[in-house]
Specification:
This protein is of the alpha/beta class. About 50% of the residues lie in helices and about 10% in strands. It contains ten helices and seven strands.
Length: about 290
């Protein structure tokens, strides 16, 4: 039976990464309102003001920089007097582009943030949780950690990697009271597409690509105002799952968020591989018309 870190009258201490906007900002705000003691990380100094105005403690964190990661963990543990009950690994970004157009450097950049930095941070937190004897670690993965969509190869791969690391950690920590959960959202209202478009502009040479026509359509989707996909939910839908992962005596291994995640998880179990490929190809073709 899993223990809960929450006792009557106790306010859990949580570190949340990627809190400038979207899911991370919503998680920091709602958990703070719920009585949690929150340290929210941001990459840019200017992103601290709104969080601080809400009474939320912030610290800067660049997941591509080991010194920044160490400093953020040290700040957090000092702020919480050495007690950290939960970590929500939320910070990540998406690099659009056909796999054949992704350079080694671009792939490495994607993994530095979404995988290497995230796991380096997590390992430091695990060391503290072993000392105190308990903890909850929640990774914000994606439906794209379950199935792959075209023109999202770098992001797909990074989320598959996170899924593999989380699943392995769960096995390695089975005899501790440190519990690992994955949240797997589909489309969520956030700045994800806007940030992805910036990375696309920086790193993809459209004019030299065999996928130029598709990129023209993809640009329209990435810059579209409002939801670009059906069944889009607000970030609070993810926070609801996060709260369960922290507070439940038996946290789930995986939490699906949005209809597409439930659908694709089911199709992956039921369909032959080529049939699932056909479905995913049709969806990609429809969104890039």
């Amino acid at each position: 039976m899993c223990k809960s870190p929450i006792a009557p009258g106790y306010h859990p201490n949580i570190l949340i990464t990627g809190c400038s906007s979207g899911i991370g900002f919503s998680a920091a705000k709602l958990l703070h309102q719920r009585g949690y003691n929150v340290v929210a990380t941001v990459r840019k100094p200017q992103d601290t003001l709104t969080l601080q105005q809400l009474g939320i403690t912030t610290t800067e964190l660049d997941l591509t920089d080991s010194k920044s990661i160490t400093a953020a963990v040290e700040f957090t543990l000092e702020h919480f007097n050495g007690q950290l009950d939960a970590l929500f690994n939320n910070a990540s970004y998406g690099q659009p582009g056909a796999v054949e157009d992704l350079s080694r450097d671009v792939l490495q950049q994607q993994f530095e943030t979404n995988v290497f930095g995230t796991q380096e941070l997590t390992n430091l937190v695990i060391a503290q949780m072993r000392k105190q004897g308990h903890g909850r670690i929640i990774y914000n993965s994606s439906v794209l950690g379950l199935v792959s969509m075209a023109y999202r190869g770098a992001y797909n791969a990074s989320k598959y990697a996170i899924e593999g690391l989380a699943d392995t950690l769960r096995l390695e920590l089975y005899d501790t009271d440190i519990h690992i959960s994955l949240i797997e959202p589909g489309p969520i209202t956030s700045k994800f597409r806007a940030n992805a478009f910036i990375k696309y502009q920086q790193n993809i040479e459209k004019e030299k690509s065999a996928h130029k026509a598709t990129y023209n359509a993809m640009e329209q989707r990435l810059t579209k105002q409002g939801p670009a996909a059906p069944f889009t939910l607000p970030p609070e839908a993810v926070v609801t799952k996060l709260i369960h992962a922290i507070e439940s005596k038996r946290p789930k291994i995986r939490y699906y968020v949005t209809f597409p995640t439930y659908l694709f998880a089911t199709l992956k179990r039921l369909l032959p591989h080529r049939c699932l490929d056909w479905v995913l190809i049709q969806i990609s073709a429809a969104e890039n018309k």
